[in-house]
Structure formats: C-alpha cells, structure tokens
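Lab meeting, action items carried over

1. Structure of the four-component assembly. Owner: GW. Status: complete.
Input record:
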Amino acid sequence: MGITKSQIFDQRQNELAQFFKVLGHPARIAILQHISTQNSCICNDLVDEIGLAQATISQHLKELKSIGLLKGEIEGKSMCYCIDLDRWNELQESLNSFFNKTKHNCC
Amino acid sequence: MGITKSQIFDQRQNELAQFFKVLGHPARIAILQHISTQNSCICNDLVDEIGLAQATISQHLKELKSIGLLKGEIEGKSMCYCIDLDRWNELQESLNSFFNKTKHNCC
DNA sequence: TTTATATATCGCAATATTACGATAATAATA
DNA sequence: TATTATTATCGTAATATTGCGATATATAAA
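Predicted assembly:
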C-alpha cells in the first residue's frame, strides 16, 4: 500500500492534513524561520544557511508554495521568496479552529 | 535517500516538525475529531467509523500517542483512548508561538 | 555573444509511510 | 477451562518522501 485513502475523508480533513504535512519537515520549518528573519529572501542564502543541496531546497520551497504559504517574485537573476501573510494568518486561524473545536476531555 | 537529515536542525525545529507530521494524515485528524465528539472513546468504534482496518487504526493511534496527544487506559476488555487536554493545549500554544514568531512580510 | 549566476526540473537510490491480513496477547464471559 | 471480544504487533506489498547529481532554463554581466 503506502497510499493514503483520501476518498474516505472529507475535504476539510484532507486539506487540514495536507497543511500539517507540509509543515511536517524540519527543513521547511527552518526555511520559514530563516525567511522571516530577513528583509530580502533569496533561495541561494537558504542553501548555505540550511545545509541541504540546492535541488533539495528548491523542492521544499515548491511544497511550501503548494499550500500558498510562500509567494515568489523574480528579482533580477534571483528569486525573492516571501511569506504570504494573508495565507499565513488564514492557516493559523484554520488550525486554531481545529484545535478549539476538537479539544475534549473524557477520562 | 528518503532519510530526513535531522542532525542539521535544532531540537525545537525537529520537535515542531514531528508534531506537524503526526497531524499530517487525514485519518489521524478524523480520529481526533471522532474522539472529541464522544464521552467514551473506544478503538473499536473507530474502525467502523473511519473505515480503515483495525491494524491500521491501531497504528495511527500509536502515532498520536507518540506525541502525547492521546492517553489510553484499559477499561475492561477494551481501551479508553482520550485526548490529553494538557498536552493538547501545550501543543496549540507551541504552534501559535511558531506562527506568531515566524510571520513576516518583505514583499 | 560568451560567461557566470541562480533556480527549477529530471531521474534515481535509499528510506519512510500507509494499509492490511495474520496472529499474538489480554481480559471478560460462558 | 474454553470461548469470545478487543487491541497490539508482525510481516509484507505498494506507494510516497527525501536528497542529490546532472542538466535545463533564464537573466545579468563581461
């Protein structure tokens, strides 16, 4: 197997899980943290900073883009990757909503 | 490869990522949601409710236990799995702290 | 135009995850 | 004690993820 049975869950559950999944890698956490400490955010910095190969960083950036957390603009010969603040806040709310709705104590 | 280079990240980054990773599967989201709607929380219910095999549910429960989100007590011949509310709140705070510290706009 | 720089994508190998049937372990019940 | 019910674990197959070198692409600079 190895394939997640997405069809037995609803869209909200799949989306929420996908979002958590993308954040579920230390390199992607580190990338977000590094970007947030900078005023300019260029991929090349990340390769030196994080210590993974350029191809690997590029792949992680792609996943962060896939859930809308990063937006990238071409700036000269490099890319300017930044956190999309609207999406960031939206996801934080979405996630807090899950936490607040789900918490329950029975034991 | 396929192996995450945890050693190049700090403990906080690895922990945070691990936490996100465990929540990054729709079955585990569904399990938490289902448990939170019940006063008694028994694994056997989950198998019918979620639609995955008993062995699979048991595996997912184990992962949720691994980050402390669930606590289980033996109750007769079945298990009572519940959300550990202290840990739940702790993780929610930890996660909000990450979101609040990391958000930044440069573009 | 040529060269250098920056990023994305492809292809692959190693490892991890997901799912499940079979079976073990444990406790209640007949 | 034998049976039934519930959950955990083992073994395995299918698929996904991680990471990287090689290469393609695109822009700036020489």
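2. GW to write a short summary for the group page. Key points so far: The helical segments of chain B are 11-23, 26-36, 43-50, 54-66, 85-102. Residues 1-4, 25, 27, 52-56, 59-60, 74, 76-78 of chain B lie near DNA strand C (CB under 10 Å from a C1').
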